[in-house]
Structures are given as C-alpha cells and as structure tokens.
Amino acid sequence: MAQTAQERQQSQRLPVEFYGSVQDGLRAAMAEAGLDALLADDASDVAYLTGFFHHPGERPVALLLGVDGTATLLLPELEREHAEWQHTAATLVSYPEFPGVRPPFEHFGAVTGRVGYAGSMSVARLAEVTRAFPRAELVLTDLVTRARLVKRPEEVALHAEAARITDLMLTAGRALIEDALAAGGELPSEAELAGHVGSVGSRTMYAEHTDVVVVSPLAGGLVYAGANSAHPHGLPSGYRLRPGEPFMLSLGCAVGGRFVEGERTFILGEPTAEQRRYYEAVRQAQQTGTEALRPGVRCADVNKACLDVIRGHGLGGFLRHRQGHGIGLGMHEPPWLEDGDGTVLETGMIVSNEPGIYVPEHGGYRISDSMLITEDGARPFTAYPRGLDDVVIPV
Q1: Which residues share a beta bridge with 92?
Q2: 243, pLDDT greater than 60
Q3: 113-117 and 37-40: which strand pairing?
Q4: Counting Cβ atoms within 10 Å, is residue 272 exposed (0-12), middle (13-18) or buried (19+)?
Q5: Fewest C-beta in 10 Å: which of 73, 86, 225, 347?
Q6: Exposure of 135 by Cβ count < 10 A (0-12 exposed, 13-18 middle, 19+ buried)?
C-alpha cells in the first residue's frame, strides 16, 4: 500500500532516549572531573542535553545536571507547556516571571558541592548563580563543549538532511537567475535572491518533515554580488546582479537544530582570465583542505595546508579568514580550522571547509562544504558541483 504524504514525512525531533544517553555520557565525564553537578544556561547546550529548543532572552533557562542521575530544567512558567510539548528530557521547575520577587535561580532550592558552568555564561548571570548557590563551589568547565565536538549517528543523519535541502536552495537560486535571463527581464537583487532561497528551504522542511525545530536561521543565508561580495559577511542589499560579475550564495539551514552550510561562487557570463585565476585558486585550496581533513591531524595544520595553496598562487593578500570552523547546533562552534587551534580532529566531528579570497572593488570567491570527519578522511555533506564550468551561468 502506498504511503500518504504525511506518512512519508520524517520527524526532526530526536527521541527522549537519545538525550538520556547524552546525559549519561556527560555524567561520566563529570565524575572523572570531580563535579557533583553541571549548570548549563546556553540555549544550544540546553537543547543538546534535553531537546528543549527556545528563543533565549532575559528570562533564564538553565539545566542543572546532577552526577547522581538528576536533570532539572529551570524555565519561566510561560515556557512550561512549550517544554512539555517537546518532551524535554528533564524535570521542569518553573518561576513566575523575571526579574521576579524571588530570583529565578533560587527556585532550584539548596545546591551544594562542586558545580561546573560554561565559559559562555555571562558575568551578570554568574553573579546571580553565585548569590543563589551560596553553599556551592562554582567551577569553570568545558565538558559540554567537548561532548558536542563529536556528533552521534542520529545527529549526523539530521546534518545530512540539512545538506540535501541546502543543495536544493543552491539549485533554486541558480534557477531563479536563469529564469530571469530567459524571460529577458531584470535580474534579481541580492535581497530578492536571499528571500527566494530561504523560502525554498523552509517550504521544503514543512512539506517533508514533522515537528520542525525552529531555530535562527532556519533556512537562508548571505547573498552578495559584484564588489559587495568582497566583504566576507556582507548582508544582502537591493543591489541587482549584473552580467560579467561574480556573485555568492552563502546558504545553509538547520534540521532538528543541526546546521549545514553550503556556499558557491557563480559567474554571470563567460569568465575573464582574472576571474578564472581567482576561482581556480580557491577551488584548489578547498580540494587540498578536503584531502588534509582526517582524524589525528591538528586543526592548525589543516588550515595551513589549505590556505598555503592560495598563497602559492600569489593571492595571499586577499585572504580575510581561516579555512573553516566546527558546525553543529551552532552555525559556528569549535573546533576552529585556524593557525591558533591545536585541536586534533576526531572521527565524527563536523567542520566547514570554506577558503576564500576577497578582492576589493572586484568581488569575492569562496567555496564551502560542511565536512564529516570519517575514519579515513572526510566527506562533504553538500554535493552541489564545484568545478568552474558548473558555476558559470551563460548570459
């Protein structure tokens, strides 16, 4: 019997058992570090440990994970139903409002022993916790960050689906331009192109998935053309694409809160010798970066091998950033593919591989894929072609 459209949809949410396993793994690391509990207030850490996704604001949301097997999520009462709907893997303790007659963290009750906290906690938040936990010893720790470095198979599957949708967005962006050229009308602006690809990504999710986990950004990215693309993190504007210029689709999306990015630089019309030189230098650098990514290699060494290709082409003066970064529940997270990061790559890590050059008053050239570190190397999640012929759009 054929499946209905609803039956074919896949859920973006991981089962409660997944979070139980994550918590147990972290408890083992806590015990080894001599911690009695761990307090996590970063929104992505909370999502990683409990499955509760929310929009962070002034109202604290924090997980107190005990080495004794307890997991208590502090949250405002207005979020309680939201957390219950998400089947949050923790006991819920709510407070009425912020700042509150009774400070929020006091609702945890008496907390004692050595309690770890992450470096992402703000100074003001740490002061609140210190006042609320007078009998506890607060200890800075990176245990959650380290746990998040290596992705579990369930997470890898979500990243792979995000990559599939990212490839659809890249294809849709190119199609919009080709359709405009065929119709003889004006080409889209950066903002129009960005809106279009973001809509394709989000519509695909809601059509094909259930329990869509809404994070920011859900789907979309940066779109810039001509000289605007010489700014690595430029924002889409009303500038319209023009024949003869490069333009960049720096796209990505999150499925189940797990991100992927895929970026391609396109050229409108037959590329000049200068454009060919720029593009091929970046393409070769990205390929070298792919070959250098493997378990047991330091991030700093991979970055050097990748960017040395661009320097070897005499284009080092146009470098503006490292080779890449970790990616997971955050679009940017450790490890960092940069000269100052000595982290040794491990199987199951996910990093972006995105060398680029930026030529003032001309444009930028960047190719990016999110890469899974495997037992014998690395493989890209995104599959959109990278060859020069594949990114030239005839005019």
Answers
A1: 73
A2: yes
A3: parallel
A4: exposed
A5: 347
A6: exposed
